[in-house]
Specification:
The protein has strands spanning 4-7, 10-13, 18-24, 33-39, 46-51, 58-60, 68-73, 78-83, 92-99, 105-108, 112-117. The protein is an all-beta fold.
Length: 118
């Protein structure tokens, strides 16, 4: 199993940047595919970005392409989400999640709030 704790959320003006971190417990972090999701009020949770166990492969949702970057440091058991050029529509609770190879995301953090003001 793995436990996930997000940090780095907060309030920022449109055009600003934030860097989210997700610290994982356990010694098998490097085997997990990691993802960042977000959920805005009144909306369903959506996938934002994913990264392979090695970090060699990443993918992004269309609304964040070119603005967000996902990365990981397996030595530190941490995955990051660098968010630049933030927009009010990026306001949401951001969650990190872990998935075993071949499985859906089964481990979730508690979430961190990101608020972008216009």
């Amino acid at each position: 199993q793995v436990q996930l704790v997000e940090s780095g959320g907060g309030w920022v003006q449109a055009g600003g940047s934030l860097r989210l971190s997700c610290a994982a417990s356990g010694r098998t972090f490097s085997r997990y595919r990691m993802g960042w999701f977000r959920q805005a009020p009144g909306k369903e949770r959506e996938l934002v970005a994913v990264i392979s166990w090695s970090g060699d492969s990443t993918d992004y949702a269309d609304p964040v392409k070119g603005r967000f970057t996902i990365s990981r440091d397996n030595a530190k058991n941490t995955v990051y989400l660098q968010m630049n050029s933030l927009k009010p529509e990026d306001t949401a609770v951001y969650y990190c999640a872990a998935a075993n190879p071949g499985y859906e995301y089964g481990y979730w953090g508690q979430g961190t709030q990101v608020t972008v003001s216009s």
